[in-house]
Amino acid sequence: MIIEDDVSISDMVSEALSDEGYSVIKAYSGTEALMVLNGSKPDLILLDLMLPGLTGEELLPLIKDIPVIVVSAKADVSDKVELLMNGAEDYITKPFNIRELAARVAVRLRGRDKSAESGLMRYGGLTLDTDSHIVRADGGEVRLTRTEYAILKLLMKRPGQVVAKLTILDEISADTPDCTEDSLKIHIHNLRRKLKTVMGRDCISAVWGIGFMLSKS
């Protein structure tokens, strides 16, 4: 998620990260960002400080369990130290090199992916145990194929976000090299059917022409 009121900077960063395969959402004020975060949980946030509405400094303490990289023109060491002490994981000063920014994003997400490899993932009645590979829906166990499990795990990492079909294929390729663009539709259809049978509702939505997203209803 990019929280930046300068449209040109926001578009530049969004385009660069999209080219790297990331799904990007944007907000142009602290107030708008807070509204977006009430309905979705991005894997990482790029946060400008000089924002209309809530400032970046005011917004930072309200962001829970999401790594934040501050992107700001403030270059004073004391400012950086204070922000890092208040919860930011990294700080990059404007103007910045887009390749450096992309590298910092990759490093932070890599560390987050590793930490998520053990333990439980939960969202909207779904529980996925990354150690035992057991999936439960509203408390009932759901038996999934290897490919279905990989797809669900990816969607649970990005709840409430649309994940492009090509991104899904790329992300799960290491675990399911046999999955193709044509067979992906079948795997997701079967996954949705299995979850709906147990939960009585469809928690995976298809966004026509783009991809799929995991939702609570």
Short précis:
By secondary structure, this protein is of the alpha/beta class. The protein has eight helices and twelve strands.
Number of helices: 8
CATH architecture of the largest domain: 3-Layer(aba) Sandwich
Q: What's the CATH class of the largest domain, please?
A: Alpha Beta
Report the sheet with the most strands, covering strand number, pairing sense and barrel closure: 5 strands, parallel
Tell me the number of strands.
Answer: 12
Task: From the structure above, extract its key features.
12 strands, 2 domains, 8 helices, single chain, four-stranded antiparallel β-sheet, five-stranded parallel β-sheet, alpha/beta, Arc Repressor Mutant, subunit A, 18% strand
Walk me through the structure.
By secondary structure, the protein is α/β, with parallel strands linked by helices. The chain folds into two domains: 2-115, Rossmann fold, CATH 3.40.50; 120-214, Winged helix-like DNA-binding domain superfamily/Winged helix DNA-binding domain (Arc Repressor Mutant, subunit A), CATH 1.10.10.10. The chain is built from eight helices and twelve strands. It has a five-stranded parallel sheet, sandwiched between helices. A hairpin with a 5-residue loop joins strand 7 (126-129) and strand 8. The longest helix has 19 residues, at 181-199. The chain starts with a strand and ends with a strand.
Question: Which helices and strands, and how do they pair?
Answer:
Layout: E1 2-3, H1 7-19, E2 26-27, H2 30-37, E3 45-47, H3 56-59, E4 68-72, H4 77-85, E5 90-93, H5 98-115, E6 120-123, E7 126-129, E8 135-137, E9 140-142, H6 146-157, E10 163-164, H7 165-172, H8 181-199, E11 204-207, E12 211-214
Parallel strand pairs: 1-2, 1-3, 3-4, 4-5
Antiparallel strand pairs: 6-7, 7-8, 8-9, 10-12, 11-12
Helix pairs in contact: 6-8
